């Protein structure tokens, strides 16, 4: 027999209406009581009839996390942190790549997304995470909020770190989709090389979102190095690309960091376990994701809020792959 809200109310000795408020995420329930009701609902195995609840409340209590792909380690961090945040609320998280190619989403109350190209297809309260600098805060008549994962300072530090260790032939390794005029890693690289009077080398490869970026990066680097030789250092646009670089160095017996230093970005879980451990730029994942989550819930309740922007700066974590 299915568990009802009445069963939950009787177990706790509270009203059926109070249980309904808590399960539907409505006001009128204290934080402690809401937590008790949600815990008992889980213990009893209560499941919500979403269709019926949406008809009554106008809410689905589903949030869409829209990503351009599910193959990069960077995007796995979003999923991990937002899944943790959802557990504290009556919402469920729907992870989707639908907006990448314009496919419609199922009914949701709001959207968290990581790619500005998806904005035109986002039809709900929206928070953009890591939108490019200068990106407007509205689409049509809709406004949205932005959380920036700042990379300017840490990218500048990464380049200074490599140059101070005597690396003169430093290459920037990237894929086409982020080789943009306002890309902070690329801009920091170019500025540092120019200031040092060195010639830039940009290794740029094409990558489809459904592919294995580590393998594609490996193949691109292999082709480049066979024609141009190995640089003294590689500043990679993310850690997946850096892992592709590790494969190339290992295959050719090239020592990291003595012959080629490697710096990545995103500080994925594997970074510290690689040999040698990978120098990388670490994001403020917990703070930035919580900020985005709370802003989205506020915008769902009040769509007329003015657009808001917050920036969380990354931190350069120096490890063995770039130190002699």
Our Rg estimate from Cα atoms comes to 23 Å
| Structure summary, number of beta strands | 14
- Under the CATH scheme, which architecture of the largest domain would be assigned? 3-Layer(aba) Sandwich
Uncertain ranges: none
State the order of secondary-structure elements, H for helix, E for strand.
Answer: HHHHEHEEEEEEHEHEHEHEEHEE
Oligomeric state of the chains in view: single chain
**Total discrete domains:** 3
The major pleated sheet works out as: 6 strands, parallel
Structural class: alpha/beta
CATH top level label of the largest domain:
Alpha Beta
The portion of residues forming beta strands comes to 15-25%
Task: Tell me, briefly, the overall form.
Answer: elongated
Task: Report what the structure shows.
The strands form 4 sheets. A 6-stranded parallel sheet has the order 2-1-3-4-7-13. A 4-stranded parallel sheet has the order 9-8-10-11, with helices on both faces. The mean pLDDT is 86. The protein is an alpha/beta fold. It has 3 domains: 5-47, 434 Repressor (Amino-terminal Domain); 62-150 and 284-313, 3-Layer(aba) Sandwich (Rossmann fold), CATH 3.40.50; 152-282 and 317-322, Rossmann fold (3-Layer(aba) Sandwich), CATH 3.40.50. It starts with a helix and ends in a 7-residue tail after the last strand. The radius of gyration is 23 Å and the shape is elongated. Helix 9 links the parallel strand 10 and strand 11 (261-263). The chain contains 10 helices and 14 strands. It has helices at residues 5-12, 16-23, 31-44, 50-57, 73-86, 152-164, 184-195, 213-228, 239-251, 285-301; strands spanning 62-66, 92-96, 110-113, 126-129, 138-139, 142-143, 145-150, 170-175, 201-205, 233-236, 261-263, 280-282, 309-313, 315-317. Helices cover 38% and strands 18% of the residues.
């Amino acid at each position: 027999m299915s568990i009802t809200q009445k069963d939950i109310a009787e177990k706790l000795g509270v009203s059926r209406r109070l249980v309904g408020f808590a399960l539907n995420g409505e006001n009128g329930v204290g934080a402690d009581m809401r937590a008790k009701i949600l815990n008992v609902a889980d213990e009893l195995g209560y499941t919500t009839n979403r269709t019926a609840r949406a008809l009554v409340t106008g809410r689905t209590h589903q949030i869409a996390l829209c990503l351009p792909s599910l193959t990069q380690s960077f995007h796995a961090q979003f999923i991990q942190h937002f899944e943790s945040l959802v557990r504290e609320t009556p919402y469920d998280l729907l992870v989707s790549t639908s907006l990448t190619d314009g496919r419609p989403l199922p009914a949701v109350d709001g959207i968290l997304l990581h790619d500005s190209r998806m904005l035109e297809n986002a039809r709900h309260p929206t928070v953009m995470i890591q939108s490019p600098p200068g990106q407007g805060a509205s689409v049509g008549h809709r406004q949205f909020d932005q959380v920036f994962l700042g990379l300017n300072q840490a990218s500048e530090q990464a380049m200074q770190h490599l140059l101070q260790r005597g690396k003169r032939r430093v290459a920037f390794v990237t894929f086409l989709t982020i080789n943009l005029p306002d890309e902070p890693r690329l801009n920091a690289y170019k500025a540092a090389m120019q200031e040092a009077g060195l010639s830039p080398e940009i290794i740029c490869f094409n990558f489809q979102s459904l592919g294995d970026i580590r393998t594609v990066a490996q193949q691109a680097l292999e082709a480049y190095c066979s024609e141009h030789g190995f640089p003294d250092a590689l500043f990679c646009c993310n850690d997946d690309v850096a892992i592709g670089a590790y494969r190339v160095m290992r295959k050719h017996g090239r020592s990291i960091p003595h012959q080629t230093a490697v710096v990545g970005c995103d500080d994925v879980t594997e970074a510290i376990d690689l040999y040698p451990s990978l120098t990388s730029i670490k994001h403020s994942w917990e703070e930035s994701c919580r900020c985005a989550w709370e802003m989205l819930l506020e915008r769902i309740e009040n769509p007329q809020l003015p657009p808001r922007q917050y920036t969380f700066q990354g931190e350069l974590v120096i490890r063995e792959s770039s130190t002699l």
